[in-house]
Design a protein that fits this description.
heterodimer, A: alpha/beta, nine-stranded mixed sheet, B: 10 helices, 14 strands
């Protein structure tokens, strides 16, 4: 499922990658960046926690627009307070769509990658970020031409409380929760692998929850497969030994095979009785016919006694 | 009184009362009191909440984790409103209400035929001038001239087919007022809000009051006697979600949503309107906040769907898609609310229909466990509430 969402076979408007202390979400994030750079016409990267270079290694940089929230988010330096500079500042409420509109080159299909939502969530309540994300998705209605096809956001599960996580989970169409992971050094470089749980909501309403294992190659391509949960050994109910009634008897109750066959051929009484009397008649509609076998003492007279009546 | 009712609520039996009882298509009097009921669109749900939603009250649906079934109930409610020609007011913050209205289930086809027939009759009737007052048969004066025995518009509770959507001419011609929060709220108020009252709820309440006043649903304002009255259906989808500005899951002492519900009930009590609200209460961390909201609404049901949870694999639930809990039933103008005979309901969504049924535990499964603790079916046999329930594991059983 993770691979399908990454490649775009499963449509998902908001993807949230939740990582934890044990498992860093940056490699998965990087894969998303490079895939989106291949798939979409332009990618807007809002980076607040890492310098942009971390995610752009191996990606097509011409398609990526960088919105810098890393170097000076609180705008301490004088030159960054100029509103025309495309810097994110945490002093005012997050407005992702505003940043998108300010970029000079407007293309139609845009993907937005946000690393991560934590600085925003630490300064503003959860609903402000939810509203800002929703405005991004409705961009098509507001502005001319821009349509956001996918939003990928990082979220640190350890830093926020349950209600914020629940609010974001309510909004997200795909929620990837990374559980364990490590580097896997290979010959070409370092890859990564790990376990994750993916909760995906389709537009039709179907919800899919899967535990998966993913591998990231040094070239930043991700493959994932569903992890089969180890089958818990079902507590074997020991079949009570069926008591065999034909054992331990002084007489023989068992049947041999020929005897069983003969038993199945026995004609029971009242079963197809008429076949014996009229073997050449087809047994059609046995329910509605009356079969009369007169005994010897029956006086079967063909005459109709009503013929005598004379008025 | 209900027993003598014909199919459409047109009966010759009239209670001796000074005020003329309102005859509104698509509603029927409740058998519990002098109240009008409107259908929710799902006849099985109507049955368990006592016949329908009482006009002037609020039915709160606490959403399931992904909101799918609550959205479906909202669609049924709106579709029923279109079939009975009640004006609609639909509000939503996430989905555009037009999108919701575009996706309504289509009524089962024989109802449409009757509806078309009735529409022709009605248009021809308009040309006939008003009848002179009857001198001899004056007891029949108040009855309607046409007998819409087969008309879809006076029938209570229609059946819908989920695999088809309602035709766009039916949805476009229906009188409706749509409230889409991002459009109604000015841009500067769409970020963070400060102050005592959430501006989103204030705006919504204002627009509801405007519609009630303009559409003449207000019962306190005297209306000319022969004006045909109808019931306004208000649907508030996913109120209280983060997009409405609800913060911290109810743990912050923000009283905007309880205040809104209280004011809404005040408006509804004196108007001919029925309201269905869905709230995602699973997002609220504070149970007390949820309880406050429940107490501020008249009837409350909670949906719990099995999708994506471990209950999906439970063999006892394999026929159903979720559970439905009745938390509260409306007690408007009476001492006692309707008491359902059982409290375990489950719903299932088949391809064409959404139905609510009593939860029947399946008979003993063949591969039931040796130990009763492991058996999923036996674990569900919780003792029913009541003084005379027999609990299964009492030591005094013999």
């Amino acid at each position: 499922m993770l691979q399908q969402v990454l490649e775009g076979t499963e449509a998902s408007s908001i993807v949230v990658i939740e990582d934890c202390v044990d498992h860093d979400g940056r490699p998965v994030f990087h894969c998303f960046c490079s895939q989106l750079a291949k798939r979409c016409e332009s990618v807007h990267l809002f980076h607040l926690e890492n310098p942009a270079g971390v995610f752009l290694e191996g990606a097509n940089i011409s398609k990526v627009h960088i919105h810098d929230g890393f170097s000076d988010p609180l705008q301490w330096e004088e030159q960054n307070r100029d509103p025309s500079a495309d810097k994110i500042d945490l002093v005012s409420a997050p407005d992702f769509l505003g940043h998108l509109k300010r970029t000079p080159v407007k293309t139609s299909l845009v993907a937005v990658v946000i690393d991560s939502l934590t600085p925003f969530l630490q300064n503003y309540p959860g609903y402000v970020i939810c509203r800002a994300l929703q405005r991004l998705l409705r961009a098509r209605l507001e502005s001319d031409g821009i349509e956001v096809s996918q939003v990928v956001a990082g979220f640190h599960g350890d830093l926020h409380d349950d209600s914020t996580a629940a609010a974001l989970r309510h909004m997200a169409t795909t929620w990837v929760q990374l559980q364990e992971g490590a580097e896997s050094p290979t010959q070409g470089g370092t890859g990564f692998h790990g376990n994750c749980e993916v909760l995906h909501r389709r537009k039709s309403g179907k919800v899919i929850r899967q535990a998966e294992v993913y591998h990231i190659s040094p070239q930043w391509s991700l493959t994932s497969r569903v992890q089969k949960t180890p089958v818990r050994p079902v507590a074997q109910v020991e079949q009570e030994a069926q008591v065999d009634p034909t054992a331990n008897l002084t007489f023989n109750l068992r049947l041999t095979d020929t005897e069983k066959e003969a038993r199945s051929r026995v004609v029971l009484p009242y079963m197809h009785h008429h076949r014996k009397k009229a073997p050449n008649k087809p047994a059609a509609n046995p329910g509605g016919q009356i079969f009369y076998q007169p005994d010897d003492v029956d006086d079967f007279d063909e005459e109709d006694p009503d013929d005598d009546l004379d008025f | 009184m209900a027993a003598s009712m014909g199919k459409g609520g047109v009966t010759s039996f009239q209670k001796k009362s000074r005020t003329k009882t309102l005859q509104i298509p698509g509603t029927r009097p409740s058998s519990h009191g002098n109240q009008l009921l409107v259908s929710t669109g799902v006849p099985s749900l109507d049955h368990i909440i006592g016949g329908g939603i009482v006009v002037g009250t609020v039915l709160l649906v606490e959403e399931d984790s992904f909101g799918n079934y609550a959205r479906l109930l909202m669609k049924y409610f709106m579709a029923e409103g279109i079939m009975t020609r009640h004006p609609l007011l639909l509000s939503s913050a996430e989905l555009h209400p037009k999108q919701l209205l575009r996706d309504l289930p289509a009524p089962v086809s024989d109802d449409i035929g009757k509806a078309a027939l009735h529409q022709e009759n009605v248009s021809s009737e308009k040309n006939v001038e008003k009848e002179a007052t009857m001198k001899i048969a004056w007891r029949y004066q108040n009855l309607r001239t046409e007998q819409p025995e087969l008309g879809a518009f006076s029938q209570f509770g229609h059946y819908y087919d989920l695999s088809k959507t309602m035709s766009s001419e039916m949805t476009d011609t229906a009188p409706s007022r749509l409230f889409y929060l991002p459009d109604e709220l000015p841009l500067e108020e769409q970020g963070m809000w400060n102050g005592i009252r959430n501006p989103a709820y204030v705006k919504l309440l204002q627009s509801i009051q405007d519609v009630v006043r303009e559409g003449q649903f207000d019962l306190t304002v005297p209306q000319p006697k022969d004006m045909s009255r109808t019931v306004l259906r208000i649907g508030l989808h996913s109120l209280g979600s983060p997009l409405w500005g609800e913060q911290d899951g109810g743990t912050s002492h923000d009283t905007s949503l309880p205040h809104f519900l209280h004011a809404l009930r005040g408006v509804l009590r004196t108007s001919l309107a029925a309201c269905l609200i869905t709230i995602p209460t699973h997002l609220f961390q504070d149970m007390a906040f949820t309880r406050r909201l429940e107490k501020l609404c008249d009837s409350v049901i909670r949906l719990e769907s099995f999708a994506g949870s471990e209950k999906e694999q439970n063999p006892a639930y394999k026929d159903y898609h979720g559970l439905l809990y009745i938390k509260q039933l409306s007690q408007a103008n009476s001492l006692l609310s309707y008491m359902p005979d059982c409290n375990d309901f489950a719903f299932k969504l088949r391809r064409k229909k959404f139905a609510v049924e009593k939860l029947h535990l399946p008979p003993e499964l063949q591969d039931s466990q040796q130990r009763e603790q492991d058996d999923p079916v036996a674990a569900l046999k919780t003792p029913s509430t009541g003084c005379f329930s027999i609990s299964g594991k009492s030591k005094l059983d013999f």
